[in-house]
Amino acid sequence: MLDVMQINSFYGKAHVLRDLSLSVTTGQVVALLGRNGAGKTTTLKSIMQLVVPRSGQVRFNGTDITGWPAHRVARAGLGYVPEDRRIFGDLSVLENLEVGRQPPRQGTATWSQDALFDLFPNLAERRRNRGRDLSGGEQQMLSIARTLMGNPSCLLLDEPSEGIAPVIIEDMARAIVQLRDQGLTVLLSEQNLHFARAVSSHAVILDRGTTRYSGSFADLDADPEFRDAWLSV
């Protein structure tokens, strides 16, 4: 479904991603791992074309989307949930969800408010509350739910467990597993290895903007010395 081929991305003169490649198969949940500054967020932004790679190619469902405006990428079926959530604080939960609504997309699940409230019961209880009045974890849930209202076929999640309470992290993991079981393809960046392992079957490790590992969690865990060399603080 998603192929990133030797992309090079920059912020001004700063060369952040260096010939980075990765692939995500339809129905997979893949965790993008690495220390702070490894290039995880830039990778997701480059896929979404919020940062346009200077070279290389991003292909989504067989189509080269490199250089497309981000709104066109979203309409093609890529959903993006940024780390800073970017919900509308003055709007209610229901209104935030309406902002994300897109028409049904052939071959993908069509999400309704009721289905999302089943996925995130916390939001059902606070559906008329303003976004600014939600907890950090509830705001993260709302950001994901709003993106799902666009009926994406692939979801990009940036640090979904960052800065939220442990009990909410468990709810988040449960929700992502449900999405996986429904066939949604997910690429998530994550620093919490336990969380990533709980929801993902495959991992990609980045270091200084380059792919150091791409494969199953089982193979990664079978070589703890290699794993710790790239992931331990």
Please describe the biggest sheet, giving its number of strands, its sense, and whether it closes into a barrel: 6 strands, mixed
Distance between the termini: 32 Å
As laid out across the biggest beta sheet, the strand order is 6-7-8-3-9-10
* Domain tally: 1
> Which strand-content bin applies to the residues?
25-35%
**CATH architecture verdict:** 3-Layer(aba) Sandwich
Shape: globular
Q: What are the secondary-structure elements, in order, as H or E?
A: EEEHEEHEHHHHEHEHEEHH
Helix content class: 25-40%
Question: Would you identify the CATH H-level superfamily?
Answer: P-loop containing nucleotide triphosphate hydrolases
Provide a concise account of the structure shown:
The chain has helices at 40-48, 70-75, 93-99, 113-119, 121-125, 136-148, 166-181, 193-199, 217-221, 224-231; strands at residues 2-11, 14-24, 29-33, 55-60, 63-64, 78-81, 154-158, 185-189, 202-207, 210-216. The chain contains ten helices and ten strands.
